[in-house]
Amino acid sequence: MALELKKSRAASTLSLTPLIDVVFLLLIFFLVTSEFEEEERKLDIVLPSATSASPMTTQTKEFVIDINAKGETHVGGKRMAMPELEELLTRAVADNPTNQSVVIRADKEVPFQPVVSVMDLCNRTGVSDYSVTTQDGPEGTP
């Protein structure tokens, strides 16, 4: 006794042509892009080495300059004279020429001249992003 098997309609209508087209396009894409990468390294050169190589820009370090009531400047808890501070800021700007920032924290009793001197130092060394911090609170309170 022979049994008759019926084919389903879903299997007979499924077209694999678009799937094959996509696979061939992907294959061509990967072949073309890998060829460009290979061409970059055809020249056999030996790169020079340096013992003190450093990246062009380093991680931005925000400097906080504190000015106490006597007008003395401190960076990181260490007292610094203006020439030392200028050297420190010059090195920082050399490492990060476009995005070095400085925060100036001055005591409310300090005369304005030390704050202006630090701001002028920032301008001379090329720090364009500097700010003077204040304390939040109602006006007129000590």
Automatic annotation (TrEMBL):
Regions crossing the membrane: 12-32
The keyword Cell membrane is assigned to this record: yes
Alphabetic keyword roster: Cell membrane, Membrane, Protein transport, Transmembrane, Transmembrane helix, Transport
Membrane disposition: Single-pass membrane protein; Single-pass type II membrane protein
GO annotation, cellular component aspect: plasma membrane
InterPro entries cross-referenced by the UniProt entry: ExbD
Any Pfam family hit: ExbD
GO molecular function, a single term: transmembrane transporter activity
GO biological process entries: protein transport
Cellular compartment(s): Cell membrane
Signal peptide stretch: none
Primary localization: membrane
Family: Belongs to the ExbD/TolR family.
Protein name: Biopolymer transport protein ExbD
Organism phylogeny: Bacteria, Pseudomonadati, Planctomycetota, Planctomycetia, Pirellulales
